[in-house]
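Changelog-adjacent note: as of this version, every example in the card shows the full chain rather than a window. The one below runs 434 residues end to end.
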Amino acid sequence: MKMKHFAILAFAAVTFTFNAVAQSSEISYGAAPARSEIMSFDTRRNANEDNRENVQQYITFAPVALTRTATVQSVGQVLEVPQIWNNRDMYLHIENPHGAYSVYVNDSLIGRSTDTRTPMEFYISPFVNHGQNGIVIEVETSGEPLLSSSLNANARAQFENSYIYSQPKLRIYDYDVRFEPDSTRTFGWLELNIIAGNSHNYTETMEVGYDLTDPAGKLQDYNMRECSIEGRSVDTVRFRMPIYKTNQWLWSQKTPHLYKLTMYSKLGQMMTDYIPIKLCFGDTRFDGERLLRNGKEFKIKGARYNAEKNRALTLKDLKALKTRGVNTIYVDYPQPYWFYNQCEQVGLFVVDQANLNVERGRDQRTIGGTPTNDPKLVNEYVDRVRRMYLRNRNRTCIIAWSLGGNSGNGYNMYKAYELLKAKGDSRAIIYAGA
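Full-length structure tokens:
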């Protein structure tokens, strides 16, 4: 398929071609890493303010229309690789594509997905050249794909909150964090595993660390350690520290106190990565019969709600739901990162749900009678649940995991449950279809 010149873009002209490919119901696993949704900042101030507009390693992805047929909409954007991005890893973060889609960088197909609601990241460095590069997304226009076919239309703008960003080849690749009371509930334990990555072909040494600030702005703990990482691999640096005077800062609906954790990496004398998150102090456990929050039984008063078209309207709705006595939000699919931030700020729990929403044949129990019992789709079911979990596992506002909407029962959902159960997470796993 021959693309028109990128001269239709106001700011550049690039010509390239690519070949159309058969549609696939599976994600290209190598091109789309599954991990926490990370945003790397260049300064502590930008990290504290979640200010992405002035970050040197961040470019908004707002593609313009290129071509359209009866079944496919092609959109694209020129990426002019900044000089400062040389020798860094680059990722394309996609949200709200409004259809199943394929991603091309220059001449190369790098990934495709039928999951229209879960934010997805593609590792694009191997396909990017110095200077100008063409990024094209082919979006199918036939509506929601099979496994999300029972959802309503997406209220958010197409490609809203999509972007391109870079990290150093020695960087924080991922993390696991728990901030929970000790067994006597007199102080807290901070357990932080920083997963450091090295994209060089040889062993390198770096430092990773963190600092923790309480809701009053007082520094409670900090630490930094050196690690040596083999080429093309990751390694985990583990921290476990007691944090005192935590009782006054328990996160609850009445007092949604938030600690601030900032992780960072250091090469020589230079700080290279700042990754901020907010922490709710407390724990949620399911003992097989009861849901426990901070050791006490917790009764859910829930409402089903998904993020609206912008942050202001969503925050207004969440506050109104809390005023009505709602304490837990049920979502239909993974939400934008700022939605969980708002729930933590307002004081609302969340039951997070994988984007598995297909009602077709849900009452069938024969093999293939429903997509949920079609073994050919098992990899996609498992992958969607895995991505939901890995993206949001560090969110302490999440008190339970839902495998999907009312999509019938069968082999695929059972295998997805097995995967999630094997993670050892103490939070409940639910599925109405079972």
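Structural remarks: The radius of gyration is 22 Å.
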